[in-house]
C-alpha cells in the first residue's frame, strides 16, 4: 500500500489507475470500516482510503484532541484489506490557510444529529468536497450507519453535479445486533449487554411499519419510553424519508428509522431502512 501526505504526490500516484473508489475515514478503524474497503473493491480497479481527523466537524463540546489516533494499526488493517493507496495529510497539507470557504448544507443539517452537534455537517461536507477535489474518484463509499451523513453527502454530490457515484455501505453488526462503532469500546460489560436494545427497538419499528402501522409518532414514543425505562438518555428516535430525512409524506414507502441515545457516558447511533 502506498502512503502519501502531500496532495501533488497523491495526484501523481493516481494517474492512469483506472476507476478509483474512495473511502474517507478519520482513522481508529474497526471491522465496519474494513467492510467498506472490501465493498469498494467491487466497484473499481483502485481503492483509495484517507485518514484525517477533521477539526471542522468537531463541536465546542467535542474534544478534537482526545480523538483516538491509531495510525500504525490502521495502516496494517488497510494493507490487509487490500487498499492500494492511503492519503494521510497533516492539517497543514489539507488546510494550509484558514478554510474560509465552506459548504453549507440545507436545513436538515440542524435536525436529528445536527441538533445535538451544531456545525458538524458543515464540517463534514466541507472536508469531503475538498477530499473529492484532491482524490478525484469515480466512486466513494460511506457507511449507512452514519445515515444522515450519507444523505447529506449524496445530495451534495448530486446537486453540485460531481461526477462521483456515492455508494452506501451496509452496517456491520455484532452477533447480537449492535452496530460496530469505535464508541463501543467505552461501554462497561453491563452496558454492552444492554446496548443491543437500540437495534431491537428499531427492528420492531420496522416490522410495525411493514405490517401497516403508519402512526409514526406513537412508535417513536413507545421506543423512547422503553429506552428511558432501561436507563438510556435519548436524543431522538425518528421515522423519516430515506431520500431527504424529512417527515414521511403520504404514500412514501422508502423510510428509515433512526436513533441516537446515551447509555452511561457513551452515545450510540443506529438506523434501519424500511
Question: Can you give a write-up of this model?
Answer:
There is one protein chain. The protein has a six-stranded parallel beta sheet, with helices on both faces. The protein starts with a strand and ends with a strand. The model has no long low-confidence stretch (mean pLDDT 96). With 274 residues, it is an alpha/beta fold. Helix 6 crosses helix 7 and helix 9 runs antiparallel to helix 10. The protein is built from ten helices and nine strands. A hairpin with a 2-residue loop joins strand 8 and strand 9. It has two domains: 168 residues, HUPs (Rossmann fold, 3-Layer(aba) Sandwich), CATH 3.40.50.620; 92 residues, Pantoate--beta-alanine Ligase, Chain: A,domain 2, CATH 3.30.1300.10.
Distance between the termini: 38 Å
Secondary-structure element order, N to C: EHEHEHEHHHEHEHHHEEE
* Largest sheet report: 6 strands, parallel
Top-tier CATH class of the largest domain: Alpha Beta
Tally of alpha and pi helices: 10
CATH architectural group of the largest domain: 3-Layer(aba) Sandwich
Helix content: 25-40%
Radius of gyration: 19 Å
What percentage of amino acids are in beta strands?
15-25%
Structure class: alpha/beta
- How do the strands of the widest beta sheet line up side by side? 1-4-3-2-5-6
